[in-house]
Amino acid sequence: MKQAPKHPVRLERQGNVALVVIDNPPVNALGVSVRLGIAAALNAALADDKTDAIIIAANGRTFPVGADIREFDMAPQEPSLGQLCSLVESARKPVIAAIQGTALGGGLELAMAAHYRVSAKTARMGLPELLLGILPGAGGTQRLPRLIGPELALDMMLTGNQVSAEIAAEIGLVDLVAEDDLRVEAVTYASTVKKPRPTSEHRAHLLDGAGYMAAVAARRARVKAELGANALAPLKIVNCVESALLLPIETGLQVERSAFEECVTSRESKGLRHAFFAERAAAKFPEAAEAKPAQVERVAIIGGGLMGSGIAIAALQSGLAVTLVELDEHGVNSALERIGAHYERSIAKGRLSEAQGAAALTHLQLTNKLDLIGEADLVIEAVAENFELKANLLADIAVFAKSEAVIATNTSYLDLAALAEATGRPEDTIGLHFFAPAQANKLVEVGVHDDASAQAVMTALGFARALGKTAVRAHVHNGFGEGYIGNSILEAYRHAADIMLEDGATPSQIDGAMREFGFRLGPYQIADMSGLDIAYARRQLKPRSPDARYVEIADKMVEQGWLGQKSGRGYYIYTGGHHMGVPNGDVLKMIAEHRAHKGIVPRKFSDRDIRDRILLAIVNAGARLLGEGVAARPSDIDAVMVHGFGYPRSRGGPMMDADATTPSIIASRLSVLAPEDPSLWGAAPVLTMLANERQKFADLNTV
Ligand code: CAA
């Protein structure tokens, strides 16, 4: 963990104006040393006769982005942020917040406790606490409705959306938008204000009590309809905003405090905070000590199918220039249609203006000439999953790509080191594994083989981050890491489900149990969506482990031509306008015959059995990847599962869930299941070690 700077707050002076300057890189989080520093500087300025007004400002790229989230699981230390905000508001001299960058959460609450707000033109403001399963706990729920009214306040708090400085000025959140130099203009403004103006005394938005209550009631009904009657933080936010009207501010603040405390200790908030830090930890690659990412301005993508087009769209969205290469004219036209259709949909949904769509497309070069990749800083092959095809293409890419370019393969499970070798430039070659739809799915696995240079790895990481993706490193070495992290776990997940299918469960029961747990789709819905032939082809290539139980059901389906959505039939039938599909009775019949043929007497699985077995399989596969050194830390596995596979974010991820159950209980449950299929249920050595040492996966998380 980073050490807090010794003096994170300084008191400066410009004439009769004192500046309380926060300097706590990287994001000026309001940890205890900052709160103490602000309180001390404020008190000193208040005691100083030569000071008429006080500005709270921040150095660096941003005004505070909130409370220090890392402190939420520690014993509270005074002054709390709420106490500090009350101190600011009760100051006898005018206090002005000078806002730049992103004033978020507790940062914006501090600004709202000040008497006046001046903001840089480019600043943005928001209360994103809900995304962490909590609510603004330093007066935000009481002060924001007073400043901008209940409806807008609820909008901001229930979406976490940020507003620009311009909008903030329009709605009454800031008093002045600086034209040029924020600090200079804030000082000028401070010398014009005569007296404190506490936000708690703003009454304009409280005068129409009936209108206020109607807005609150409507929002409460909407939250319940959309999120259910147990949506903890959203409903608490609505209650607190109601209290802002009904109660004196001191009591409203107490209501807010106890709501905050209830939310911050909830499992949901712990899960969401874990997910937040897991994403950031995953981006810490060891190669950062040796190399910096090279700038990627143009990316070339070979293969304009679903995956290649998706990567192209993601790159265009991030402002990069793209060369997309297809085999022939027909391929070029289909890729153009696919990308064009995406932009049309985005414009129709109001996500993009026509001008923005047209501007993005001017950065796209579509061609069937491979030699045009020569200007690209990064070249990604995204053709079909066939070793010969990819190896030959990569060899050609190496001929045309400039010598400094990084070459990436989007393979899901082929031998990465051998593909890198095929380029003749293995040090420049890396795995970049996107997940469909690549323009939307947040996960990218960076496959690192032993000959890859630190420079290539860091450039691939920088590119993934520039696309706004959560990048996770998968170390592919000595025969380990085939399938990286995500697909290796998915395989175990599917295998656990297939065993239950063969032993008595139905596809829709398994899918339903996993949806109930929080996945958007169950494993058989995903299989139907991906196409059963893809996994079938992979199974044909993979040697079978002698102690693995083999379930032939999916193979039999492919042999019947039931490939999923693409053939209209899979585990579900998609004809007749059923978008989600209805259970395929022929599959159920085939499964029954299959069981009879193997002499299996079907048994019942409860939804809980299904969920437990699948989670055990996921956790055990994750532990195996840790032992093999493919995944660096348990939280990387959580990030992969949350972003790539829809594991419910509010649970943090499977390894966090495993810690709640404890590794020793998991190991003992696995030992009961082991005889059924030792290859799946045999406890991974890391799990056994944690169980023996009475440790948790969290103990292995390093940053
Ligand atoms: N507390 C502690 N650390 C924080 C933090 C916070 N509120 N916000 C960011 N950080 C850390 C990150 O973990 C990261 O640390 P490492 O370098 O060690 O990984 C570092 O600051 C930089 O963050 P990012 O990598 O995310 O930088 P970015 O430029 O991509 O994004 C950001 C910046 C938009 C501010 C993003 O970090 C963010 O969304 N932060 C969280 C904001 C938030 O949720 N604020 C509300 C906090 S809760 C609150 O304030 C409750 C209250 O009412 C009392």
UniProtKB/TrEMBL annotation:
One GO-annotated biological process of the protein: fatty acid beta-oxidation
Cellular localization per UniProt: Peroxisome
Chief subcellular location: other
One term of GO molecular function: NAD+ binding
Keywords, in A-Z order: Fatty acid metabolism, Isomerase, Lipid degradation, Lipid metabolism, Lyase, Multifunctional enzyme, NAD, Oxidoreductase, Peroxisome
Keyword set includes Hydrolase: no
Gene3D superfamilies: 1.10.1040.50, 2-enoyl-CoA Hydratase, Chain A, domain 1, NAD(P)-binding Rossmann-like Domain
Catalytic activity: a (3S)-3-hydroxyacyl-CoA + NAD(+) = a 3-oxoacyl-CoA + NADH + H(+)
Residues in 3-hydroxyacyl-CoA dehydrogenase NAD binding domain copies: 299-474
Pfam family, one: 3HCDH_N
Annotated family: Belongs to the enoyl-CoA hydratase/isomerase family.
Name of the molecule in the record: Short chain enoyl-CoA hydratase /3-hydroxyacyl-CoA dehydrogenase
